Structures are given as C-alpha cells and as structure tokens.
Amino acid sequence: MKRISILSVLTVMVLVFPIGVASAFGGNFFGMDSESRENMVNAIESKDYDSWKEAKSDRLTEENFNERVERHETRSEMRELREDKIRAIEAGDYEAFKVAAENWPMLSKIQDEGDFEILSRLHQAKLDGDYETVEELREELGLLGGFGKHKMSGHFGRGRMT
Question: pTM for the full model?
C-alpha cells in the first residue's frame, strides 16, 4: 500500500512539474522561445552549424554580454572576500576578518574577539574533520543550521568554511 502511494505521488509530480515550469517561464526556457528552441534542435539534428549559429545569434546581444560580465565581476568580488575572510580566520586577524566579512549574514553572531576565537576554532575543527566539535562551537556561537540543514550561510559540507 505504501509503495503504491509513493508511486502515485511521484507520477503526479512528474506530470505536474513540467506544467508548472512552463507556466513560470511563459514557455521560455533559458531565455528562448519555443520557435528558437525548435530551430536549434532542427539545426543540431541536421548537423547544420550555420543554421544552429543563426538560431543562437538572437541571444548573442551586447546586453546579454554585459549582464554576464557583471555577474562574473560580482562572483569574483564575492570569491575574493570569501578568501580574505578565510585568510583572516586562519591568521587570527580579527580586524581583517571584520573588513572581509562586512556583508556576511553571520557577522552579527561574531560580536567580539572572543567570538572570533571560537569561530577560528570552529574553522580548524572543520579542516580537521572534527564535526562534533564543529557542531558544539556552532551552537555556542548561536549559528543556525548545521550540516545538511541549509540554514547557515556557507559551504560547511563542501570543504569550505564560508
């Protein structure tokens, strides 16, 4: 009985999900209307590079390029700040940490150098693979979430601290 219920739910999800996605995007997936998408598929199926290039060219605009440049620059800045924050934690440099973590949502939990020391120990415990200590220190700082709970900013489960 339980197996039938699970299969029923999965079947409904498989049928309803594409309808929801189509509604949400107004039929435009990845910024393409259905005609452009069909032209690209036809060009690929006929192995016609020129037709494929022509079908794709409507998306190659200066505006799209500028948006990609802006996203790249923003990501690069965020990556630099994250690396600066980690370097400050590893060096035990509270002042440098405050500058690098200025827009970090969890900064409000690091009120003083004592909290920063706990954060440094938490980071080292993470690097050492001591997840029990990580959880204890996380709770001590009042940081939400934990491993796999996706409530804390950062990539704790992916080898990075922030």
Answer: 0.53
